[in-house]
């Protein structure tokens, strides 16, 4: 099993969600994240210019069985892509064990 | 009797509209400030209307309309200074009091106005003033300073005698609040982080622009009563031209501020647009019954420009006015008062000088009064929150509350 975490544009979230649901993925978690980088975005408020380095993105997290990793990553790569700087990143990490609380199933069975 | 009924109903509708303006001020001020101070600014607005009405009933109304003056200047307060009482046995509810409204309507309509002057100050001093100090200041200001200034014109005092004209209060209400706001932000200092070490001005964006927008629409609606009621009767021609000039000036003020700020700063700033509408409204208030529709548009257009440059001037003076109260109420109040001598049926150089005299005399009185009151408060109770309290927010330190409890903490 692997955990896939991806930081994507909020504007691509619906596309990614739709694409993932069309693959084997039935469920995933997401939350909004703020990143801080060197890129600055200019703003003006009541005649005063200011810039912010805060970047708003959405992070999605899902655990899949080993044979689904490649297709899931491919799906996200495709759906989240715009080609401009700031499309985000995908991280894949191993997961030791998974349990479904209701049935006490473990391993890959608990994921479906 | 039918005439009185019609007039009186209109005046009570206008009274309700002016009351509604206090919601408009509340929303505008809370929207243009930060989340961590939302409860605090709403608390001040709620306090002002309650305290304003009570103090106006106890003292303000009689102070503002003394009935007679000693030597034409000093109001004759020796009779009936405190409390509300009908001026004559059975005359309070019929034409013997006034052809436009009853004694009680008169009180309530004027009472709604009185609190407005302090509400103007509340936005300017937002996010850093001590709640107790603000409440004390606003009570003194609306109980004493506002009615005394009002008595000089609307109460039949010496400014009325020299021909000074202020229809609904560009100076008597808005500038009185604006001068108080100016002195208060001078004595209080800027919010932490507003000006950098190099003197550079920093933006502190308001946390809810949709609420600020709702506030401005409500204020505009309230102005139908503010100016429409200042006719002091339901006179068909005067009320309708007044509402036309009021709305045209508001629209022109908004468009002008939006265009000027877009040209100056290369962005479509909604908050400037909103301030421009208010600037137009304040600007037309002094002569809403004197102006032609095209005069009203011109007054609004100038007011919109005054807003954009006023906001920038306040910034350059290293003064911090989060909601633009000084530019809206003071700068446009002065402009509107002077405009009576430039446009409309009273225009003329002599009238312009009279208007200027009124602005100067009232300005001096308000500045001195506000300076004395605030300096005494500063020396005794203190005016400003501690640095830590201001940084973490007035809501948690003054109130122990969170305006949006389920949306996470506002502390930064």
UniProtKB/TrEMBL annotation, chain A:
GO terms for cellular component: cytosol. One of its GO terms (biological process) is regulation of nitrogen utilization. It comes from the Bacteria. The modification O-UMP-tyrosine is found at residue 50. GO terms for molecular function: ATP binding; enzyme regulator activity. It holds the Pfam family P-II. The keyword Phosphoprotein applies. Keywords: Phosphoprotein. The keyword Transferase does not apply. InterPro entries: N-reg_PII, N-reg_PII-like_a/b, N-reg_PII/ATP_PRibTrfase_C, N-reg_PII_CS. SUPFAM superfamilies: GlnB-like (SSF54913). Belongs to the P(II) protein family. PANTHER family: NITROGEN REGULATORY PROTEIN P-II, NITROGEN REGULATORY PROTEIN P-II HOMOLOG. This is Transcriptional regulator. It comes from Salegentibacter mishustinae.
């Amino acid at each position: 099993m692997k955990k896939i975490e991806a930081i994507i544009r909020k504007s691509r979230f619906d596309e990614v969600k739709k694409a993932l649901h069309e693959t084997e993925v039935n469920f995933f978690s997401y939350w909004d994240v703020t990143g801080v980088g060197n890129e600055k975005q200019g703003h003006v408020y009541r005649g005063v210019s200011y810039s912010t380095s805060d970047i708003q993105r959405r992070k999605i997290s899902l655990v899949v069985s080993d044979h689904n990793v490649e297709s899931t990553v491919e799906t996200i790569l495709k759906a989240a892509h715009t080609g401009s700087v700031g499309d985000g990143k995908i991280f894949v990490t191993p997961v030791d064990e998974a349990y479904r609380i209701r049935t006490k199933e473990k391993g890959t069975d608990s994921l479906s | 009797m039918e005439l009185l009924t019609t007039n009186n109903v209109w005046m009570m509708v206008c009274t309700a509209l002016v009351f509604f303006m206090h919601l408009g001020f509340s929303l505008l001020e809370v929207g243009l400030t930060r989340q961590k101070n939302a409860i605090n600014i709403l608390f001040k607005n709620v306090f002002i209307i309650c305290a304003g009405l009570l103090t106006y009933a106890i003292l303000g109304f009689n102070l503002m309309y003394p009935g007679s003056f000693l030597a034409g200047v000093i109001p004759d307060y020796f009779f009936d200074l405190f409390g509300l009482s009908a001026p004559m046995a059975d005359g309070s509810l019929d034409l013997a009091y006034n052809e436009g409204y009853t004694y009680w309507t008169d009180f309530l309509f004027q009472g709604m106005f009185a609190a407005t002057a302090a509400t103007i100050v509340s936005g300017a001093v937002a996010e850093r003033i001590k709640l107790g100090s603000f409440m004390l200041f606003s009570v003194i200001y609306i109980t004493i300073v506002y009615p005394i200034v009002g008595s000089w014109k609307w109460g039949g005092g010496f400014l009325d005698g020299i021909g000074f004209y202020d229809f609904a209060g560009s100076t008597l209400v808005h500038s009185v609040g604006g001068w108080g706001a100016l002195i208060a932000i001078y004595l209080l200092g800027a919010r932490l982080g507003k000006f950098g070490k190099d003197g550079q001005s920093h933006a502190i964006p308001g946390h809810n622009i949709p609420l600020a927008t709702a506030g401005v629409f409500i204020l505009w609606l309230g102005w139908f009563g503010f100016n429409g009621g200042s006719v002091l009767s339901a006179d068909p021609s005067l009320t309708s031209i007044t509402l036309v000039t009021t709305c045209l000036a508001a629209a022109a003020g908004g468009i002008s501020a939006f265009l000027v700020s877009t040209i100056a700063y290369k962005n479509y700033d909604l908050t400037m647009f909103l301030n421009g509408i208010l600037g137009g409204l304040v600007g037309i208030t002094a002569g809403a019954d004197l102006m032609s529709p095209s005069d009203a548009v011109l007054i609004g257009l100038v007011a919109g420009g005054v807003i954009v440059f006023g906001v920038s001037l306040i910034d350059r003076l290293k003064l911090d006015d989060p909601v633009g109260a000084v530019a809206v109420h003071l700068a446009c109040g002065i402009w509107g008062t002077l405009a009576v001598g430039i446009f409309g049926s009273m225009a003329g150089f002599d009238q312009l000088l009279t208007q200027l005299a009124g602005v100067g005399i009232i300005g001096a009185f308000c500045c001195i009064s506000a300076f004395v009151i605030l300096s005494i408060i500063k020396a005794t109770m203190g005016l400003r929150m501690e640095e830590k309290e201001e940084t973490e927010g007035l809501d948690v330190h003054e109130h122990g509350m969170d305006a949006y409890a389920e949306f996470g903490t506002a502390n930064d």
